[in-house]
Amino acid sequence: MQRSPLIARTVPALRRAVDNLRKRKATIALVPTMGALHDGHVSLVRLARRRASRVVVSIFVNPTQFAPTEDFGAYPRTWKADIAKLAAEDVDIVWHPGVEAMYPQGFATRIVPEGPALAGLEDRFRPHFFGGVATVVGKLFTQCGPDLAIFGEKDFQQLRVVTQMARDLDLGVKVIGSRTVRERDGLAMSSRNVYLSPQERQTATTLYRAMKDSAGRIRAGEAIAPAMARGAATIEAAGFVLDYFEARHAETLAQITSRKDGPLRILVAAKLGTTRLIDNIAV
Ligand SMILES: Nc1ncnc2c1ncn2[C@@H]1O[C@H](COP(=O)(O)OP(=O)(O)OP(=O)(O)O)[C@@H](O)[C@H]1O
Ligand SMILES: CC(C)(CO)[C@@H](O)C(=O)[O-]
Ligand code: BAL
Where, by residue number, is the active site (predicted)? Predict the structure, then answer.
């Protein structure tokens, strides 16, 4: 029988609910989200279910990771549909704080990530972003105290930054990455895809095709620079404004010049009209 998850809106209510699960010797997985849930999020919840006996999903559109010029106000909020999806997945607790519960009056502490995972990419175009993410994810981890937490590979640099933070701050949470879920034409599922017009939605698949093409060329022995230049040109010709299209070391995200530098990942961010999309694939 389908149960509705318990919905916690304050830190004490969340802690009580988690303590109750712990009394029953549960292992707990946390899946942090900003809501507007799609099948990508559902795949994270399913992985959480396989890895732990109880699942907590947080839904919080975190203002500190948006610049004032970005889409915090417009970000899709689909609460009822989200809860129905989470009930169908048998989620135990939904942690849904208001902004005042997460950042009470007088809040004045931030976690500021540094190091190689921040070398460019998202950090160059959204310099506020990882400070906001690390601060809120650090809080989510200490509020909920999960054994493990699941993050999508779609936000590959975020996965690396959060993994490093959990390790550096001894948060006792094992961070697990989950593969990217795509639409049939290859577009990575993303809450922001709803911003795309029908025409833009058709064009959007170019990102995946260009990454696959460049990855195929590199695998076939073409030098990295021309293979990547070709992908970038394809994306721009389709009408995107490109932020970056780069091949990086898949583990460290360090810059690479040759295939001998180790396993590679191609990462892309580009704007189509006013919608900014990101994606990545393994080479
Ligand atoms: N297509 C996807 N496949 C797998 N995981 C995903 C996918 N899309 C998002 N996620 C993961 O879900 C978690 C919550 O992400 P978020 O709520 O920001 O969704 P999103 O679709 O990435 O939204 P946005 O459009 O804002 O980037 C993150 O760990 C993110 O990497
Ligand atoms: C990890 C996260 C929930 C932090 O707000 C967000 O950046 C996201 O949804 O990827
Ligand atoms: N999916 C990452 C959250 C963000 O872009 O704000």
Answer: 41 (proton donor)
Residues annotated catalytic, as ranges = 41
**Distances 19 to 29, 65, 103, 144 between C-alpha atoms, Å:** 14, 29, 23, 9
Find the CATH number of the domain harbouring 224. 3.30.1300.10
The parts of the chain modelled with pLDDT lower than 50 are none
**How much distance in Å is there from the Cα of 232 to the middle of ligand 2?**
27
Domain end marker among 118, 145, 178: 178
- Show which of 156, 178, 200 is a domain's final residue: 178
**Is 170 found in the same domain as 52?**
yes
Q: Tell me the CA end-to-end span of the chain in Å, nearest whole number.
A: 43
- Which of 191, 195, 243 best tests ligand 1's pocket when mutated (most atoms within 8 Å of CB)? 191
One domain for residues 157 and 205: no
Nearest CA to ligand 2 atom 8: 33
